[in-house]
Structures are given as structure tokens and as C-alpha cells.
Amino acid sequence: MKALRLFAAAALVITFAGLAQAQAISEKSKSFLVTYPDGSKETVLVKYQGFVDASQQQQGSASKPFEGHPIDDRHCTWSIKTYVLRSVYFVSKSGQQGQIGSMTHTFDDRIDNSRGPSNIIQATGYHVTCGQVQNQIDAQETAAKSKLEAGFDQIVDSDSATVEKDLKDLLHPVSLDPN
Asked: Are strands 105-115 and 97-99 parallel, antiparallel or unpaired?
């Protein structure tokens, strides 16, 4: 029972060690002056943020033949997600922002990968720790960041017509002018 509690605690530590927080690497904003049929006006801000969210987790354990675990079945799983988040806000005269939730959109790209045994037969002669593939993980994360940075403006530019159409459909303005 004690060994089971130690295993559960170790698995919990490894799982939490694999969690990461998304890192913002690019940002761009556009604002529009909305004029309504009654003549009133308000500002709408469209904000694009590019994020990289990487996580990794090592599962399994080293061989411990005298503790009932005869094979080394360690393997490393990682995920790298890049995405651009579009958020749209009404901006008051005092500068306060209120999000228009229905206009939120995510453009994403994902890399999921793993190294190590996928079954008990492979585990008899093959194991991989996250430390052994860390250079590969880092290289994939760097490549994903570069890809996002290179394509960020294209994503924003290609969304411009869509966001303007969606704003017109939602707000029914007389005019929607870049501000």
C-alpha cells in the first residue's frame, strides 16, 4: 500500500511538472469607429494575440525487478500548440473594454508527439525519457514559434474581411471605419 501511495505521488509530480502556461509571442490590434443609424458612435477594438503552449510528460518508470516492475517502460509525450486568438471589445469613452464573446475566434496549429514504447513487448528493449529527447522537443518548439511569427500577419490580414463582415452583421451600423 505504501508503494502504491509513493507511485501515485510520483505520478502526480511528473504530471504537474509537464504542465505549462501559454506564452504570448505576437500581438496586433485594429480599431473601428462604428456609426449607428441614430448617429451615435462607439469604438470597437479587435485584438489578435499569438501564443505558444508547450507541455511534456514522462510516463512509466525505470526497471525495478525486486519491486515487481521488471521492465523499463518510460516514455515521453509532448504537445506544442500555437494559436492566434482573436478577441473583440467595445471600448467606452473612458477606455474600459467589454468583450464581445461571440466574436472570439481561435486559429490554431498543433504538434503532438511521443517517444518510447507503446506496448509491453516494445518496453522490453526500448525506453525513452524526456531528458533524452529534450533537444528534439526544444527544436520543435522553436520551429513552431518561428512558424507562428512568420505567419501571424498573414492570419490577421486574411481575417480582416471576415471580422468586418461579422461586425456589420452583428451591429448593423451605417458605417464601420478603421480608426
From this structure: unpaired
Phi, psi of 96 (to 5 degrees): -70, 145
Q: Which of 78-87, 102-111, 168-177 bottoms out in mean pLDDT, i.e. has the lowest? A: 102-111
Task: Return the number of other C-beta atoms located less than 10 Å from residue 18's C-beta.
Answer: 18
Task: Tell whether the model's pLDDT for residue 93 goes beyond 50.
Answer: yes
Separation between Cα atoms, residue 132 and residue 116, nearest integer Å: 10
Residues 15 and 7 sit within 8 Å (Cβ to Cβ): no
Amino acid in the structure at residue 3: A
Sequence spans of domains, the chain: 2-178
The model's pLDDT over 5-59, given as tens digits with 9 standing for 90+, comes to 333 333 333 333 444 578 899 999 999 999 999 999 999 999 999 999 988 988 8
